[in-house]
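Module 6 notes. Inverse folding takes a fixed backbone as the condition and produces residue identities as the prediction. Think of it as a translation problem where the source language is geometry and the target language is the twenty amino acids. Below is one complete input and output pair. Work through it position by position during the lab.
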């Protein structure tokens, strides 16, 4: 029996709706998510509500409603605590691989299990460790005060995401001074390309292509597919 959210495979060739999933406090005017919302066609923000006092299951239900209402393929673009909301959505819903969510860009997830973490972040722990049922990038900065690079790489491995090193730009938000964040746009473009060619590309080749694309733009060896995460050094 098909999952209740699963789309007819004949509809999966359509360009996906891009759903932005902000984190704690929402994304302000100068945040790259807000800029993308204005610039990218078919890009919408999920109104999670309770922005300063988040409730995990409420956020998960809001994501589920947005995905359901889309009625078409979806790419999720999450920042910070929104990444954990996406992981919990996948944990609860367990949709078919790549249907209806055909990809995700997960940016700067915080360490919600760290000792002394903000209680509002801790509500989203313990972190789900199941591989996500869609192709994904996890982008992280090496000087993010909310999560070490080592922990971020561990999350990428657990979630089956391709890790993408974003440089030393803090929490990858408005304070990072990245404006439209061109590197993130390149990662999103790769997810879109994969979706458009998926009928002729297997999952293994997709992951390899995703890794090569991220490495090309970072020009650093810190971009890795999940099967290579355990080989990385600690930074």
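Target side of the pair, the amino acids:
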């Amino acid at each position: 029996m098909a999952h209740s959210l699963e789309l007819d495979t004949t509809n999966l060739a359509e360009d996906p709706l891009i759903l932005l999933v902000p984190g704690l406090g929402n994304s302000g005017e100068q945040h790259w998510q807000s800029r993308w919302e204005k610039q990218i066609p078919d890009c919408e923000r999920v109104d999670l509500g309770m922005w300063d006092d988040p409730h995990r299951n409420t956020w998960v239900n809001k994501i589920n409603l947005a995905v359901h209402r889309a009625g078409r393929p979806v790419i999720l673009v999450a920042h910070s605590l929104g990444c954990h909301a996406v992981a919990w959505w996948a944990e609860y819903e367990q949709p078919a691989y790549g249907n209806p969510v055909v990809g995700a860009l997960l940016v700067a997830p915080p360490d919600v299990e760290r000792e002394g973490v903000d209680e509002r972040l801790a509500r989203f722990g313990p972190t789900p460790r199941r591989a996500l049922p869609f192709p994904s990038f996890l982008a992280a900065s090496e000087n993010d005060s909310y999560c070490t690079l080592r922990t971020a790489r561990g999350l990428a491995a657990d979630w089956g995401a391709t890790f993408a090193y974003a440089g030393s730009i803090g929490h990858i938000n408005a304070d990072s001074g990245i404006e439209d964040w061109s590197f993130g746009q390149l990662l999103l473009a790769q997810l879109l390309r994969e979706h458009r060619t998926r009928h002729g590309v297997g999952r293994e080749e997709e992951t390899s292509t995703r890794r090569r694309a991220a490495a090309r733009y970072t020009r650093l060896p810190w971009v890795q597919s999940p099967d290579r995460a355990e080989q990385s050094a600690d930074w």
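Reference fact for the lab report: The helical segments are 32-39, 56-70, 81-93, 119-122, 149-159, 182-197, 203-218.
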